[in-house]
Amino acid sequence: MKGKILIFILIVVIIALGALLGTKLFMSNEMKETGSGAENEDDVLTVVIDGKKQKVPETKYAGNKRTLAVVIDNVGSAIPQASLNEAMIVYEATVEGGLTRFLAIYKDPKVETIGPTRSARPYFIDYALENDSIFVHFGGSPKALSEVQSLRINNVNGIDDPGKVFWRTNKKTAPHNAMANVEEIWKYAVSRGYKTTTTERNVLNYATEEVKLENGAVATTVNVPYSTSKVKFVYDAETKLYQRYVGNTLQKDFITGEAITTKNIIITFAKNYTTSEENGYGRQAIENIGSLDGYYISNGEAVKIKCKKTSRAGKTVYQDLNGNEIKVNDGNTWIQIVPIDLNVSFS
Question: What is d(CA 210, CA 78) in angstroms, rounded to the nearest whole number?
Fold first, then answer.
């Protein structure tokens, strides 16, 4: 009789322990799925900030793949360009003749072709450095090429390419037709011994929840009137994205035909001037070190910010007027680097 009682008690204990274990497993799975409870190691990226390891939330551009910084042509038959929508950040800045050129920063792009590529300028090197990027370009100004060598920039130069990374499309006219193959860029980088991963955080501080700007100005249309191209961004309240126009022409992708769109726009006012390099060419210099005025624009609103960069390789920190680093919406960003007297307007 006692033996039966002991067996019964043992069975009850086993059942109770099983139920308790099942409850813990269920709760653990629930916390993983809902994000509640302790932080899940799989949902965060460890990076090095100020020499210390820190964790950042999982956002669209998280991950430790090193970025590519590709100089993109923006004149003549170079337009329309390929794969600008895939870029994490696109910097637009003035070059000689009042024209503009792009530096597109790609974080593990899921495309085959980028371009047309174009020649480097020194200030594009600055933004490649702060993004810890492999610098992709097709030639460059003498000063830029000298700095690529002196600063030991991990770069892929179309002038030196044996013919695998870059190719020329017959749908555009030279020199505005040099396209780049993403897979071959990575192969070339590996062959040169460049590191392909990074422990650095992204330049922009991406939010995991939608950012709502407080006391912002209405900015459903953003006008950026560069001297030779009148850039305009128009907000679509349904998609919560801005469509990009040059003049009254909607920009589209060279391959897909899709409209060029962006989630965020940053305006940075920086002094630019003509250098003595190669008299007659009008090469530009941009003073991007220091505390510069600007705007952060998203979801149809704009707020004033400060853009602070302490050195060429130092990451630009975008701050509100109280000195706090701003959070930006989790999506692609166009950074318009404009002359300090440019009449940027919103409506």
Answer: 35
